[in-house]
Design goal:
This protein has five helices and two strands. The protein is mostly helical.
Length: 101
Amino acid sequence: MSAVRQALEQTPPDLGSDVAESGVMLTGDGALPTQNMDKLMTTQIGLPVLIANDPMTCVARAGAAADESRRRLNDVSDASGHPGLVLSQRRRCASNSRAGK
């Protein structure tokens, strides 16, 4: 638990507030019901601890989805001939949505 506490202490404030609000997500072997890691962590760190759906494969599936997104972005960048164009347009859209535009 000391490693978890240390990681939480070193977490930037904006991310830390998200973790405090949403909780910690367990994946892999530690998330299996027989381990009771969720109950132990909730008691030890005082934050909500959730168990991922299908904890044994969720990280691999998320990695595959991220890789597919990266490939699609590269395909769009390659097709436009301007790799930076797509990224700058995405940043502009993101900043406009944050500003309420």
